[in-house]
Amino acid sequence: MNAPTSTPTNNNRRKGLTTVAVLVLLAGAAWGVYEYVVSSHFETTDNAYVQGNLIQITPQISGTVKEIYADDTDRVQAGQPLIKLDGTDAQLALQQASANLGAVVRQVRTVFANNDTLSAQISLREADVARVQVDLERATDDLARRQKLTGSGAVSKEELQHAQSQVAAAKSQLNAAQAAVVAAREQLASNQAQTQGVNVQSHPSVLAAADKVREAYVAAHRLVLPAPVDGYVAKRVVQLGQRVAPGANLMNIVPLQQVWVDANFKEVQLRNLRLGQPVKLTADYYGSKVEFDGKVAGLGMGTGAAFALLPAQNATGNWIKVVQRVPVRIALNAEQIAKHPLRVGLSMEVSVDITNQEGGSLAEATRTQPYGMTDVLEISQQGADELVNQVVSANLGQKVKMAHSVAQPVGNKQ
């Protein structure tokens, strides 16, 4: 048989397949060029989320919540009062510490005053020794005269025995008086050991009692819990009338001006990531119309699975390899954050320009400044020192107006 001749349909099919093949080759070539020229210079991921500091507000003393000044979503400024505890117990504790300080001052004054009393006792005992020595000498002379007259019969035996008894009694009195002098001197030395080198104000017992007053003063000024930083209130759990203990988390402050992005890159994407590389980010919250600029600030020291609460146990049972991810911290532009605020937990899409490979993958310099600090929680000791001085002066016999009342905490003035 003769082979079938080609038909117009076969020709059209051949042309179509050729066209498709050419288009596939062109698309592959275009993709290859894009991959080599553009895509190979970027590492991207959509497994990225906004992170920030969650600053816990916790009391330093126990107490009952009396007032709450802020609620969820409220903006607060550093130093602004957030919670106030009932101050009855703190007030009583401060008054008791002040009263105890006054009692200790008076006791120490008595110890100092005893030095003069005991010195006088020593002088008195020494005078007794001198008097008894005179009596002993007199009794000894009388005994000697009677012993000389004994042979002539001028002195009876009974009178001689009486003179001997007086001498013995005088010796006993002298020994007792000398022992009393030693005891008085020992007592004075013991009392002076408690007062030597110090005065009433610097006596250890007074200093210890004064520290108790300062401790109670500080506790009284911790009744108001201030905001340590500027931010927004989140996760308020404290309620009025609640009895709180030190360290209990009552609410959180989120400083939205201090947020960053944790981008979880696959481990195969990390080989070209370096510190300082520029980053472009978009948030689902704003869409592609708002683009954020950032820089690679650090690479995590382990995978998410390694730091999980229940890390994987790959040595047991059947094992399937899963590509791990490592968190990479992206620092954001502060001006852009102020203009377009972000919330903690928002999803982000991240694209890192890896063209520059000069940076390292690990930080080389150590931090020389505090990562964060606040002076809001500091309590001035000036008021406590003034209260201590007033209590000490009043109990030293000086006319000073006592001040038992607790100063009004900062931020609570009406």
Labels describing this entry:
alpha+beta; Elongation Factor Tu (Ef-tu), domain 3; 4-stranded antiparallel sheet; rod-shaped; disordered C terminus
How would you characterize this protein structure?
Among the domains are: 90-204; 255-364, Elongation Factor Tu (Ef-tu), domain 3 (Beta Barrel), CATH 2.40.30. With 414 residues, the chain is an alpha+beta fold. Strand 11 and strand 12 form a beta hairpin. It is built from six helices and 14 strands.
Helical content stands at: 40-55%
Q: Provide the succession of SSEs.
A: HEEEEEHHHEEEEEEEEHEH
Distance linking N and C termini: 114 Å
The total of helices stands at 6
Strand tally: 14
Question: Radius of gyration, rounded?
Answer: 46 Å
What is the multimeric organization of the chains shown? Answer: single chain
Write the SSE topology.
Blueprint: H1 8-37, E1 42-52, E2 55-57, E3 63-68, E4 75-76, E5 81-85, H2 88-149, H3 157-193, H4 204-220, E6 224-226, E7 231-234, E8 243-244, E9 251-254, E10 259-266, E11 278-283, E12 287-299, E13 325-332, H5 334-339, E14 347-353, H6 382-395
Antiparallel strand pairs: 1-10, 1-14, 2-9, 3-5, 3-8, 4-7, 5-6, 7-9, 10-13, 11-12, 11-14, 12-13
Helix pairs in contact: 2-3, 2-4, 2-6, 4-6
